[in-house]
Amino acid sequence: MSNSSKVWFITGASRGFGMEIARDALARGDRVVATARRPETIEAAIGIHDNLLPVALDVNNEEQVAAATAAAIGRFGRIDILVNNAGYGLLGAVEESSGVEVERLFATNVFGLLSVTRSVLPHMRRQRSGHLMNISSIGGYASYAGWGVYCATKFAVEALSESLSIELAPLGIHSTVVEPGFFRTDFLDASSLVKTEKEIKEYAATVGEMRVLMAGANHKQPGDPKKLSKAILVLADNPTPPQRLPLGTDTIAKLRGKNAFVEEELAKYEELATSTDHDDVRQ
User: What's the number of CA atoms in the CB half-sphere (13 Å) around residue 173?
Assistant: First the structure.
């Protein structure tokens, strides 16, 4: 084993992006702590490997988070890359989303990510090195009808990642928020996507159409998860990684479209926006 091989800590590693990244990292000689609610599903998906440590982890359980981090340090002595990948989607209008549905989504997608990050960062600070990779979505940069609450969790991940990037830079630690577009994973399956129990007929032309669109898009998305994994390994090897990494042509198009829309609105309302400063500031 090379002393230069990286140690990865990946949440949600039994399928999808997490599984692909774990496989590729192992294939090149890195060491991987792969977590999932049921660790046996990791070995079933990836196999048994000397450099693989499957660990039980529900990101909503802080005791399990602490135990998983301790197991990683106990086995490999360090954590170089944390991939916060665990999460799921909620499809429905904002008004249709119940308090329980919203709280559960934030508990996993935001509070769980924070719990794992707080647990791993002390070890990265001690090392004076490390790289946080928070898996967001194009929905963390631009929202869509029917995805408002899900996008809200990813907007939160974007904000946290930006602040972490600033706070951790003097400590030799990097933070990157990864923004995949629509990739051909199981994200639109019932195992990863929850639909609101309530459906309001007045939203048929917006959210209803999105439900129909998503039902027909499952496993037909343009993005290739295997290629995303390769891109994540390139990101891991970058000594000066970006704060934000969009992945997929659909993501790039949406990102540029929103940027243009924001600039257009800013130009239209700039006079009103600047009118609110104190007079002594505007002189």
Answer: 27
Amino acid identity at 4: S
Question: What is the distance between the terminal CA atoms of the chain, rounded to a whole angstrom?
Answer: 65
The residue annotated as part of the active site, out of 136, 137, 161, 175, is 136
Q: Is 115 part of the annotated catalytic residue set?
A: no
How many whole angstroms separate alpha carbon 94 and alpha carbon 196?
10
CA–CA distance, 17 with 179 (Å, rounded to integer) = 12
DSSP lists the bridge partners of residue 223 as 183
pLDDT in tens, 65-114: 999 999 999 999 999 999 999 999 999 999 999 999 999 999 999 999 99
Instruction: Identify the three-state secondary structure at position 61.
Output: coil
Residue in 150, 161, 165, 254 annotated catalytic: 150
Q: Structure tokens of 196? A: 């609101």
Reduce the DSSP state of residue 68 to 3 states and report it.
Answer: helix
Evaluate whether 229 touches 24 at the Cβ level (below 8 Å): yes
CA distance 44 to 11: 16
Residue in the structure block whose two tokens are 């924001």: 262
- pLDDT tens per residue across span 164-192: 999 999 999 999 999 998 878 766 677 67
150 an active-site residue?
A: yes
Our answer to whether residue 154 is catalytic in this structure is: yes
Q: Which one of 154, 165, 175, 254 is the catalytic residue?
A: 154
